[in-house]
Amino acid sequence: MARKKIIIIGNGFASLFFIQYFLLSPVFPLFAWFLRRVYSKYDITVIGNGHFVYFPAIPEFITGKKNSQGITIDIKPFLRRRNIHFINETVTDIQDGGRTIITNKGHYKNDVLFLGIGPAFLKDDIPGTREHTLSPCDGPESMLLFMDKLNSLTQGIIYLGFKINKKDGFVSGRGGQMYECACLLDYALKEKGIRDKFEIHFFSPDIAVDETGMITDRLQERGIILDYGYEPAEFVAGGMKDDDGSLRKADLILYSPGITGSKLVKESCLPVSAGGQIDTDKYGQVKGLTDVYAAGDCASHENPPPWVPHQAHMAQLRSQAVAKNVKAMLKGEQPVTTYRYELSCIMNMENDAIWLHMASDNKPPFWNIFPKHSKKLINVKNIFEKLYLIYLRYF
Ligand SMILES: Cc1cc2nc3c(=O)[nH]c(=O)nc-3n(C[C@H](O)[C@H](O)[C@H](O)COP(=O)(O)OP(=O)(O)OC[C@H]3O[C@@H](n4cnc5c(N)ncnc54)[C@H](O)[C@@H]3O)c2cc1C
User: Fold this and answer.
1) Which atom of ligand 1 is nearest the CA belonging to 54?
2) In angstroms, what is the span from residue 38 Cα to ligand 1's centroid?
3) Distances in Å between the alpha carbon of 65 and those of 61, 62, 378?
4) The CATH number fitting domain 121-259, selected from 3.50.50.60, 3.40.1500.20, 2.70.98.40, 3.90.1030.10
5) Can you tell me the distance from the alpha carbon of 291 to that of 296, in angstroms, rounded to the nearest whole number?
């Protein structure tokens, strides 16, 4: 019998977690390591650009602790070790209810499709976003450009902010990452001895003007000016225009727009949620299509709690459930595995750190063995990163 053809689009967190949970579980790690080099039960293909980027480390470009090279991995050897074909192409369309994948160079058929194509950002939401702002969410290049511009300034006004797309009922945006960037920027400028020459502002129309709490305390103790509730009418050269036409001066703006689905989501046969993402059910199945699954930042949730964000951690939980459901489906069974909702991330401020956490079942992270507020969490965050990158590079 012909092996089932599984196509995975994208080589980011969601796709790699799917592969990790889908392939032979390493009860005997050495045996599995050898076996999967020579034998595959399925014919698996990944279509992507071949470079995995560890996004959570990008804010640390600001302190010079991380760089592009250190957080980008050629993922082809990882795939070869698992007997997975790799196609270095960009998917431009999905047809026949998911069975035909069109790329910039060819077309491919599948029996099962997994979509881990990541987010797109609502850059047309506020005019001037593309021309006058930079974002860590656009990847290492945009953050490097921000650093070049920052390094050319000896004084000035810097605005950092974010917006959330709330149409799918959860946090489709990057708040935590932007708070982290603001605190790291404060630290870096203090290290250079020029913090007093800069104003750092933090804005978001999605935070109530009178918001209080752990994160707000951290921003205030660093002298970061809170422009909570503020949304610029337009980003322009030299700053931002308000509704009344007045100009707020800014020498540099780091801004993350709300998250939506990419052009591929909107222009292919995929169902689109109210927020523009792939409409996905609680089993990770793409609604209305057969044997098509999605996870990570490209996909909406079914009845999510309003606090859940798009995170690598959520991609992991969802990809794990999808892997089980695909296995069940390949055995002729119904998908029954759902996933937990959990927000979990360490906000690194270089001289301090906090663990931001919420879970749908109220389970604490790692049985509460770690403190919630301690500089030591920076080491924990670094260890997670190192272990994951070692796994991708060598296992
Ligand atoms: C600055 C920053 C800090 C973050 N910090 C944290 C953190 O501390 N903790 C945490 O859990 N999460 C964090 N996140 C969020 C996390 O990085 C994302 O949630 C995660 O990357 C989502 O994984 P994904 O696989 O859905 O998307 P991605 O990682 O973006 O991967 C998408 C993949 O799809 C490919 N692709 C897209 N379109 C196509 C196409 N048409 N054809 C072929 N391939 C395509 C891309 O090339 C890429 O390989 C952070 C994000 C940022 C930006």
Assistant:
1) 17
2) 30
3) 6, 8, 12
4) 3.50.50.60
5) 17
Whether 313 lines ligand 1, by a CB cut-off of 6 Å, is yes
The string of DSSP letters for 135-184 reads -GGG-HHHHHHHHHHHHT-SSEEEEEEE--B-TTSSBBS-HHHHHHHHHH
The answer, yes or no, to whether any atom of ligand 1 lies below 6 A from the CB of 304, is no
* Residue closest by Cα to atom 38 of ligand 1: 117
Of 293, 382, 379, the C-alpha closest to 54 is 382
Enumerate the domain spans of the chain.
5-119+261-341, 121-259
Whether 5-119+261-341 and 121-259 share one fold: the answer is: yes
Cα radius of gyration (the chain): 22
Sheet with 247-249, side-by-side order of all strands: 234-236, 239-241, 247-249
Distance in Å, CA 315 to ligand 1 centroid: 9
How far apart are the CA of 387 and the centre of ligand 1, in A? Answer: 18
Q: Is residue 254 in contact with ligand 1, taking CB distance under 6 Å?
A: no
Verify whether ligand 1 is closer than 6 Å to residue 13 (CB atom): yes
pTM of the model: 0.95
CATH number of 5-119+261-341: 3.50.50.60
Interval 175-218: pLDDT, tens: 999 999 999 999 999 999 999 999 999 999 999 999 999 999 99
What's the rounded Cα separation, in Å, for the pair 389 and 387?
6
- pLDDT single digits (tens) 236-256: 999 999 999 999 999 999 999
